[in-house]
């Protein structure tokens, strides 16, 4: 079957294709239609090039790859490419991943790494490279992986930026000398098969590990370095502290301003309310406030469930200073700091056209949901047009903010343990919802609806709201999460929830936002992108770079990835149930030791 695009694939796999393909891709018109080539859909420039195991042979063409100035990934591993590396590769300043392992490249690795400050992963393993390890690799401050094993490299290990490097291997070369002491911590196997000493190998001079005795630092020098570093850190902390104080002050000023506008415009008292203000209302626990004369009822905040939140009335709520958290599908969410001393989140619903009785019934069934991984609905207010929902305010914010916010300096990386715990908590919360009846589903699973406590326990929010809205509600940011069979956001199902949860798992693993206009002109969504990458056996390339620092959990990551792929299957029948999903994640967490053996969640209502 050589029809259509299959013919192109065959051409790439033939050894004669290697060079001509590499020539052609530098022409900007056609490349994005080819397998293995990923383009930026705005510039139509090649941003990733994956040609692994395609039987490419011969030398890389000169002055060709260097034309792909936007390239972030160059993967030519498992081919039979030979000769020296063309130096124009070293002008690709956006390069993050350079995979040339398992080829027949020879000659020295050019010492030209200095401009490649974005490089994170480099593998030159299993080639015939000779000469020294280029010292300019030491300038790569973001380098996390360096694989140089199984070559003919000689000389000593240069000064590398050890703090950023998590995965490292120089075994089976001809390296000599002492292993710098900063490499202590890597296993013996990372250095074996050389004439090296120190570090995890036998000591160079009988007792010392690390650098050879000639370049050993004196006690005074070490003390000087330690004191100098401490002073440096102290200075940086002081500067950060002052900057934070200044920023917070500015933020407070802005918030106060926003708030006064919000109070007047957004949480406006409905026109039919008594002009003398709202009477002081006593909270009616368990929905009892819905009883009584309707005129009074309309002015009441109806409290629900176990009411851990404490008592306050509508007037308190309206007096609270409020800050807009964001606008979503169902209305605007506010953070409201009550004068009585605690903070709540208030959602002002829009597009709810449902009659009062039906609304109260639906919202009270939402209020009955009680699970440690769900964000409980504490109270609601219904008066004609005005509908407010009150829940705990979660100061840490949402998974979406944590994954995609602040990707720059100062970001706290989310490691495997945190991510798998977040996945497990969210799965448990949704599985609980599904266990409450075949027709109970969430309807709007996405990372902005998974809120996180300071100890990274998940609280799934917004469940059951999809059934309240009218047909005109325009979903925000759900497109990437919505199951293919869902055409009306009110017609939700448990299997559609499983799909959305699968996308959320993919988001957790890849670090890519599903709502981001993805990857190429054809608008490939996150599940399809991941599937295509996995099909081509580049599985390890889908994971978020932050996850690659975790050692010995790759199998667990791949298992979770497989589960996510199963959840986001195109046909609902092929998707597992949420209970199965939750059990499987629990097993995965168990095997990697990130079990949730934690103290029960504390009350999440924060005091202001
Ligand atoms: N209880 C809460 N505590 C802290 N932040 C919250 C809380 N509820 C919502 N948020 C945050 O406020 C923002 C707006 O939330 P909202 O639920 O209104 O919209 P959304 O999640 O973006 O979309 P949708 O309405 O479709 O769920 C989001 O970033 C959300 O994470």
TrEMBL record:
Native source organism of the sequence: Cynara cardunculus var. scolymus (Globe artichoke)
Keyword Protein biosynthesis: no
Localization, UniProt: Membrane
InterPro entries, per database record: At_inactive_RLKs, Kinase-like_dom_sf, Leu-rich_rpt, LRR_dom_sf, LRR_N_plant-typ, Prot_kinase_dom, Protein_kinase_ATP_BS, Ser-Thr/Tyr_kinase_cat_dom
Residues where ATP binds: 347
Name the record gives this protein: Leucine rich repeat 4
Annotated region described as Disordered, given as residue ranges: 589-608
Gene3D superfamilies, per the entry: Phosphorylase Kinase, domain 1 (3.30.200.20), Ribonuclease Inhibitor (3.80.10.10), Transferase(Phosphotransferase) domain 1 (1.10.510.10)
Main localization of the protein described in the UniProt heading: membrane
Transmembrane domains' residue ranges: 221-245
A GO-annotated cellular component: membrane
Residue stretches making up the Protein kinase domain: 319-588
Keywords attached to this entry: ATP-binding, Leucine-rich repeat, Membrane, Nucleotide-binding, Phosphoprotein, Receptor, Repeat, Signal, Transmembrane, Transmembrane helix
Molecular function terms, GO-annotated: ATP binding; protein kinase activity
Keyword Nucleotide-binding in annotation: yes
């Amino acid at each position: 079957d050589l029809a259509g695009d299959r013919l192109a694939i065959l051409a790439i796999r033939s050894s004669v294709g290697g060079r001509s393909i590499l020539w052609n891709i530098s022409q900007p018109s056609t490349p994005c239609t080819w397998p293995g080539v990923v383009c930026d859909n705005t510039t139509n420039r090649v941003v990733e090039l994956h040609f692994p195991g395609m039987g490419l042979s011969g030398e890389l063409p000169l002055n060709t790859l260097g034309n792909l100035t936007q390239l972030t990934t160059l993967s030519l591993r498992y081919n039979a490419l030979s000769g020296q590396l063309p130096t124009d590769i070293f002008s690709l300043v956006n390069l993050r991943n350079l995979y040339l392992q398992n080829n027949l490249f020879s000659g020295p690795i050019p010492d030209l790494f200095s401009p490649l400050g974005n490089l994170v992963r480099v593998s030159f393993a299993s080639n015939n490279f000779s000469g020294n390890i280029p010292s300019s690799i030491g300038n790569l401050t973001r380098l996390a992986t360096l694989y140089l094993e199984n070559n003919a490299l000689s000389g000593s290990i240069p000064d590398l930026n050890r703090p950023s490097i998590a995965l490292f291997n120089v075994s089976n070369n001809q390296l000599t000398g002492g292993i710098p002491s900063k490499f202590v911590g890597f296993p013996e196997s990372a250095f074996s098969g050389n004439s090296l000493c120190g570090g995890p190998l036998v000591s160079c001079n009988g007792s010392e590990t690390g650098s050879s005795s000639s370049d050993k630092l004196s006690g005074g020098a070490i003390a000087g370095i330690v004191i100098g570093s401490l002073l440096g850190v102290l200075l940086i902390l002081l500067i950060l502290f002052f900057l934070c104080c200044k920023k917070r002050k500015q933020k407070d000023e802005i918030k106060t301003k926003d708030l006064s506008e919000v109070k007047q415009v957004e949480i406006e008292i409905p026109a039919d309310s008594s002009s003398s203000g709202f009477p002081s209302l006593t909270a009616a626990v368990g929905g009892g406030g819905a009883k009584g004369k309707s005129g009074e009822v309309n002015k009441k905040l109806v409290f629900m469930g176990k009411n851990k939140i404490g008592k306050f009335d509508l007037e308190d709520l309206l007096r609270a200073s409020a800050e807009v958290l964001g606008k979503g599908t169902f209305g605007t969410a506010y953070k409201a700091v009550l004068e009585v001393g605690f903070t709540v989140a208030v959602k002002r619903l829009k597009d709810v056209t449902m009659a009062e009785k039906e609304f109260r019934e639906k919202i009270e069934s939402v209020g009955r949901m009680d699970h440690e991984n769900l964000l409980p609905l504490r109270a609601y207010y219904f008066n004609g047009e005005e509908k407010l929902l009150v829940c705990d305010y979660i100061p840490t914010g949402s998974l979406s903010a944590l994954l995609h916010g602040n990707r720059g300096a100062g970001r706290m990386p989310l490691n495997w343990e945190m991510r798998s715990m977040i996945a497990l908590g969210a799965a448990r919360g949704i599985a609980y919802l599904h266990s409450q009846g075949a027709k109970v589903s969430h309807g709007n699973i996405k990372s902005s609806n998974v809120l996180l406590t300071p100890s990274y326990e998940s609280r799934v929010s917004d469940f059951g709201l999809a059934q309240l809205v009218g047909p005109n509600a325009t979903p925000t940011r759900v497109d990437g999460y919505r199951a293919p069979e869902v055409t009306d956001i009110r017609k939700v199902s448990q299997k559609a929830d499983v799909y959305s949860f699968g996308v959320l798992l993919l988001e957790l693993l890849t670090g890519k936002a599903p709502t981001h206009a993805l990857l190429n002109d054809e608008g490939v969504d996150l599940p399809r992108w991941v599937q295509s990458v996995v099909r081509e056996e580049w599985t390890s390339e889908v994971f978020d770079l932050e996850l690659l620092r975790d050692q010995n959990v790759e199998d667990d990551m791949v298992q979770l990835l497989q589960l996510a792929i199963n959840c986001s299957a195109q046909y609902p029948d092929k998707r597992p149930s949420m209970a199965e999903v939750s059990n499987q994640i629990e097993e995965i967490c168990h095997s990697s030791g990130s079990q949730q053996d934690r103290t029960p969640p504390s009350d999440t209502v924060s005091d202001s």
